[in-house]
Each structure stands twice: as structure tokens, then as C-alpha cells.
Specification:
The protein has 477 residues and is of the alpha+beta class. Helices cover 60% and strands 17% of the residues. The protein contains eleven helices and 13 strands. Strands 1, 2, 3, 4, 5 and 6 form a six-stranded antiparallel sheet that branches. It has a five-stranded mixed sheet with strand order 7-9-10-12-11, covered by helices on one side. Strands 8-13 form a two-stranded antiparallel sheet. Strand 9 (389-397) and strand 10 (400-407) form a beta hairpin. The longest helix has 100 residues, at 191-290. The protein is rod-shaped and about 180 Å long.
Amino acid sequence: MRGFRNLISLTYGQKLSLVAAIPLVVAVAAIALLVAYESRATAEREIQALERRLIEAKKEELKNYVTQARNGFAYIYGRASPDDRVAKNLVTQILSAMIYGKDGFFFVYDYDGTNLVSPRQTEFINRNWEGLTDSDGTPVVDEFISLARQGAGWHSFMWQKPSTGEEAQMIAYVVGLQDWQWAVGTGVFIDDIVATVANARAEVEARVQRTFMYIGGIVLAAVLIVFASGMLLNVRERRLADAKLKELTQRVFDAQEEERGRVARELHDGISQILVGVRYALDNARRRLSRGDDEGARDPLDKGIDHLGTAITEVRRISRDLRPGVLDDLGLGPALKALTDDFRERTGIETEFSTVVFRNRLDQDSKIALYRIAQEALTNIERHSGATRVTIDLRGHKKGATMRITDNGHGLTVGPDQVSTGIGLRNMEERIAQLDGSLRILSSRGPRSGTVIEARLPLSHLLPPQEDSPLNRKAGT
């Protein structure tokens, strides 16, 4: 559990490296297993083919030995009767003398299981070995007799080597002398073949292990490279993120200072001047009242009341600019309508707002973002465009919502690659990007060419109809 918590608490770079390294390790491990399996399978097929070739060569050698031996006593066996003891003795003497190598010899058993010839192991002679089996339980003498009755055949079993006294695997070839009911044969030990095959398998296994080591080294190097790349990428991304965070923080501070300066100018140039006028009007009225000139005090009081009304209107305007209450009370449509009406009255620019009733309403973040984008766009139009006509269109559709702001001004400054953007347009882009939307700006230079700002929000920011209150349905959005 603690290890799992430690895994969860990995840094972003470590998680990235881990996610990149795990598929690599799994893929290479699968390739390594496949290579090992195919290598072993191919090598095993080759080893088995080699073993078969060697054993076939041994068998062919044994068959030649038996054929030569039979040719050696064929003239005796061919003329002898089934009970010719003299002929049988001559043949046993001939076969007893036929020894070769360190362990090669001929053996003879009658069909009753009695050994007649065993020059390397004389203790077997004249003893019945019917039912004899090797250490693995394989029948030996009974199988010799069975093969001899059938004419000839091969048999493999474990047998004691005369030269070493150790047990080893033997292959024997047996032929039957049916007139005498003898099983005559010879065998060869194939422990050299077994050793060769075992060495080949050991070499294959060592080769597979070396391949695994090479692949493991490659994987380790690849993982280290991925980890180092992930760390470098993490460091680089972190530095970029820190730089962007610092830039964003500075822009937030700049925006705050700009907004504070704007509010300060509004208060100083507007409300402060109005309140000063109110103070002078009230002071004038007070002086006239102190002289008993009630009729003369009426005019300053009226002016003071008018100035206070203007101050109240300015406070409401500043408050609406900071956070319009109609946006929360009635929705985005009425808020934009009020914004365009105020813009038209303040600037004299012909401004038109149009919308359709949404079946779904926008969520709060989307309403604020679109309102601020419209507010920023109108500010830019007033300051820089020289436009005489502005239209704002807000619509909901099956893909989401779209707000289009169009003016007939002289357009934005065009650089070599794209429209240059100031802090206001960057603020628009960031607001819409936070909501997974898109902002498109179309502009061209020239008299009355104009600019189009189109903000799109995805359908995910439109609430379902059941969450829409009657007040919001009436307001439109």
C-alpha cells in the first residue's frame, strides 16, 4: 500500500518517463521471449536432426558389422542342420572372436533367453536372462528374441560399458537365425552422441542467455535514455511553465493596475468633479440661506441635486462595468443589450445587438467570458478602429454558442504572417481557451474594411433545458 502511494506521489517527469518506459520494456520483453522461443525451437530442430543423422550413421555401421559377421559364418550355417552342435560351436567361436574398439562385441541368445556368446562380459554366458530389463525398466533380452523372431530389428536400452563399468545408452541390431533359434546381434554405445547433443543444447542455452543479456543491456540503455529525455523534457517544460506563469502573473498585475488606474480616473475625472460641483452648490446654497435669501438658494440646491443624480448614474455605470448585475439577474442577452445601448449613447457609434432565444442556457463561466470579450472588443473599437457601425450577434446552435462582433473600421495591423494582437486580444483568446472554445479574428487594412471577432463555445457549456429557469428563458440566455 505504501509503494502504491509512493507511485501516486511521483513527479510529472517521473510519471512521464514511467509511462514512456513501460511500453518499451513490455515490447522488448515480448520480442526477447519470442526471439528466445524461436532460437530454442530452431536450435532444437537442428539438434534433433543432427542426433538423427548420427544415430542413423551408427545404425548403418552396426548393420554392416552384423552383415559382415553373418557372411563370415554363412558357409557353416548354410550346411548345418538345426541340431548340429559342431557347427554351432564353430559359429560361437567365430562370433566370440569378433570384438572391435574398446566396447564393441557380438552377442548371441537362444530363443529361450540363454546367453551363448558375450566375449566382453563372460559372466553372462550359459545363463538364462529371460525377463532382463535395464535401469529404466526397458526389456532387453526378451526384445532381442522378439526382433529375431521377426527377422531383424533395432533396440535401444541402457547397458554397462565394459571399458568403464558405467551405464550408458546402447543401440543394438539383432538378426534371427531361425533354424537354430538364435538371436545374433551387436551394439554400439551412443554416449558420445548424447554428450554431443547435450553440449549443443548447452551452447544454445548459453547463446540464448547471451542474447537476453544483450537485449537487457539495450533495454536498460533505452530506458535510461527515455528517463533522461523525460527529465530533460520535464525540466524544459517546467522552465517554460515557470516563465509563462511569471508572464501571466505580470499580466494579471498589469491588468489589475490598469483597471485600478481606469477606476481611479473614472472616480477622479467623473465622480470627483461632480461631487466637487455638488459641494460648491451646497456651500453656495448654505451661504445664501444664512443671509436669508431662500429664493436665491433654490437654484444652487437644484444644481446640487442634478449633480448628485449624475454622480449616482456614474457610480452605477462604473459598478456595471466592473460586474454588471443584469448579467446575473437576466442573463447574457440582456447584459449585452445594455452594454451596446450604453456604448451607443456614450460614443455615438451606431451599434446593433441581435440574438435568438436559446433552448439551453449558458453556464456562468461562459456568460462572463462572452460578456468580457464583448466589453473588450467594444473598448478596442472605440479607441482604435474609427468605426461608425458595430453589430453584435449571439446565437446558440447544435454545436454550442457563437458570438460575432463586426465593425466597419480600418482593421487591425497586419504583420508578415498574421494579425498582430495586443493585450486585449490576448485576454480574449485566453478567456475563450479556458472554456475549450475558439476565437477567430478576421481583419483587413483599408478604409471601412472592418474587423470580425468570432468567439465559439462548445456544446458542453450549454446547460440542459430542465436546469433553465423561467426567468432565464424569458431573458434568452
